[in-house]
Model the fold of this input.
Amino acid sequence: MRPSAIRQVEVLDGYRLRLTFDDGVVGDVDLEQRIVGRGGVFEALEDPAFFGRVAVHPELGTVCWPNDVDFCPNVLRHWATGEPLPTDTGESAAVAVPHDHLGCRVTAT
Done:
């Protein structure tokens, strides 16, 4: 499986986003449990008006907000579609290891 890139984002109700990926796949993801109550850089996203300022970063191919919060597009695709995360070797399952932006550091298990 190749890495994903997001081409379009639409804000739905609550903390839900509709994502369109570069291969045409569309999926909805609810980020409430990943934002609300986490504090730090995520606190600004609890404000619906600020959450609604989400955009697609043209170089990173993922969603981002004005305070530089972003999520890995591969992880977002997994959350939105249930598809497995891509691996480097394709031989083992992958586990997303969150970093500062819940990004895309992936390790094989």
